[in-house]
Amino acid sequence: MSTYAGKVMTSAEVRSGVPAVDRYLAEGYNTVPGMSSRFAAAVCAGLLRIQSEMGVKGPIAEVGSFEGRFFIALAHALKEGEKALGIDLFDWPNPEVKDRFEANCARHGIGPDTRITWKTDSRTLKADELLEKLGGRRPRFIHVDGEHSRHALSRDLELAASVISPEGIVVLDDMLHPGYPTLMVTVHEFLAAHPEMTVLAIIDRETIVAATKFVLCRTDWFKRYEEALLKAFPDNVWPMGADFEPHWCLVLSLDTRLAAIT
Ligand SMILES: C[S@@+](CC[C@H](N)C(=O)[O-])C[C@H]1O[C@@H](n2cnc3c(N)ncnc32)[C@H](O)[C@@H]1O
Predict the structure, then answer these.
(1) pTM higher than the cut 0.70
(2) Which of 31, 37, 85, 89 to mutate to test the pocket of ligand 1 (most atoms within 8 A of CB)?
(3) Backbone angles phi, psi at 250, to 5 degrees
(4) Any bridge partners for residue 84, and if so which?
(5) Three-class SS of residue 142?
(6) In the predicted model, what is the mean pLDDT of the chain?
(7) For residue 259, what pLDDT is reported?
(8) Architecture of the domain whose range is 11-252
């Protein structure tokens, strides 16, 4: 008989632990157009809180900010003096998307002193250009959510790995998505070429639009972050974990049930 019950939660029940983020998730998140899950936003902002508690400082960046839904959640977790850099072509579905991004940030409390809006193409961006935009400070967190082709993801991943701080976290959107099955090949190629990086956790999808994210960190930071995530989100740990052969990592989900075995 099955002995593990697990449970099913809604994303509204999951908190980052940062009051400003949790207020935005409750009152603003669904009013800003976007494609990331609220559950993932709570976990990622929780990771930023964990970093701050560990003394990890620095700016953050997002490739593919669109109208700012996820960006605003992350930016609310920043500490005094830290900045959030939003990178996008800002041409889809029309050029006014940049104005909407800035208006959404302003409406939800992310002022021009905290945000940097950068209309540029991440595929041609160089590491030193990105670092210059951040005043020479390496980001402690990067969300990669730009073009979903293998080539573009590969470029974005290499860029992120070359600028991220040693204690930093890189989050990849739309992993294991039925519409982008080949992106997984790029991730495995990247991990094979970068043994210093590893998958810290998988944040399970909420819907086909609010898809799964992979959380990457440096191998030597894995244990510290894993312990902190287990403490921060105990109700969301799917007990089987993810098998990266031979590496295992956490799976965080709103649904922690296992198949019943009778
Ligand atoms: C799926 S949307 C991002 C959604 C957003 N991160 C959210 O969570 O709501 C993808 C964004 O990536 C941007 N993008 C696509 N290719 C890009 C490139 N080469 N450089 C910069 N941004 C790009 C698009 O303009 C689009 O706004």
Answers:
(1) yes
(2) 89
(3) -70, 145
(4) 60, 115
(5) strand
(6) 96
(7) 86
(8) 3-Layer(aba) Sandwich (3.40)
- Report yes or no: 241 and 254 within 8 Å, Cβ to Cβ: no
141-144/115-119 β-pairing: unpaired
Rounded to the nearest 5°, which phi and psi values hold at 22? -65, -35
152's tokens: 């573009």
Q: How far apart are CA 244 and CA 262, in angstroms?
A: 28
Measured in Å, residue 190 CA sits from the centre of ligand 1 at: 21
- The DSSP line for 5-70 is ---B--GGG---S-HHHHHHHHHTGGGS---S-HHHHHHHHHHHHHHHHHT----EEEE--TTSHH
> Residues 64-106: pLDDT tens digits?
999 999 999 999 999 999 999 999 999 999 999 999 999 999 9
Radius of gyration of the chain (CA): 17
Check pocket membership of 118 for ligand 1, CB cut-off 6 A.
no
Please, are residues 262 and 1 in contact by the beta-carbon 8 Å criterion?
yes
Confidence of residue 257 (pLDDT cuts 50, 70, 90): very high
Of 197, 183, 212, 253, the C-alpha closest to 6 is: 253
Q: Among 240, 247, 237, 170, which residue's Cα sits nearest to residue 203?
A: 237
Q: pLDDT, tens digit, for every residue of 121-168?
A: 999 999 999 999 999 999 999 999 999 999 999 999 999 999 999 999
**Measured from the CB, is residue 24 less than 6 Å from ligand 1?**
no
In terms of Cβ atoms closer than 10 Å to its own Cβ (0-12, 13-18, 19+), residue 163 is buried
